[in-house]
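Hey, quick one: can you model this chain's 3D structure?
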Amino acid sequence: MAQSPFAMTSAAERVTVVGTGLIGTSIGLAAVRVGYAVTGWDADAEIAARAVELGGFEAAATLEDAVRAAGMVVVATPIPTIADLVARILVAAPEAVVTDVGSVKSNVVAEVLEAVEPDEVGRFVPGHPMGGSERSGPEHASASVVDGIVWVVTPPPTAAKAAIERLEAFIGRIGARVVRMDPARHDRLVAFVSHLPQAASTALMDVAATEEADEPEILLLAAGGFRDLTRLASSNPALWSDILLSNREAIAEALEIYARRLGSLRTQILEGDGRAVETTFDRAKSARLRLAAKPTVRAGVAVLQVPVPDRPGSLAALTAALGEGGVNIEDLQIVHSPEGGRGTVHLTVAAEAAEAAASVLAANDFDPTRIA
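Sure thing. Here's the predicted structure for all 372 residues.
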């Protein structure tokens, strides 16, 4: 009988993922990739089995079996379940550092501190990997989900220094970038850049769906911009209800500020103030271009619009041409035509590479237009 990899690995190298959905499974696969022995457990045995089928880690029959010999336990379950699971795991896994991946931290920290014995709480170090997708389930998981992402670590005063260092070393080893932050500050910032986009996308899709009752052809006119803005509306409803209610004060503030900004734009449009409208768009465009690039190229980026046929291999040909020409892609978005048969790639490159990118693409029978 083959020996379990756990039998040959120290506790420090053993990782358990509790909750084998998209994020949990992706973290597990990333850990396997760099040599950790990984086991997974999920309250839904079918989901756990689907995660194990992806290869690389084992399943356990019970939570206690899953965590008993672990050196690191990652809790990747819905927010309302985190505190109880952390309390159980800290007792069952006496050598483990325990973290979670919940997208709201202040409530989780408060609930864990209330549920956990004082002599155990030092091994709990909360976190939030800023990666994922509107999709869900282990079948959409990939180790690449954590590649290069910011992983926020939000240690409360009770967290032991050694536990924080072990978690941060693990995060770095599997390919993510640690940013340490106070839990309350984290919650306010993600309300604007994570929770507000989800709420805005959902509200926009809800408006269109309501209008569809009287105008059944409205969604036939939905082009790339609408599709991009409403992509998040396909996210898991129960998951996002939990997140928004757990961060209700911060998201309420973000929604109020966003509503005021929309109201200001509405006033500019009604008053026919073209200069003010243009200024608003220009300010947003400049900020978006900074977001699209890595810190090393934020001094300037360019955006090229490239029509492509909607057929297999088109995008691969475009990216291969740029690679052979030595042009690095900073960001890439695809907008599909509602009529079918074609699409448009919005390609972001460093500003100094814009001319070279256009030349390379033109030489390979593409027709790029610089739009920014």
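One thing worth noting: The chain has a mean pLDDT of 87.
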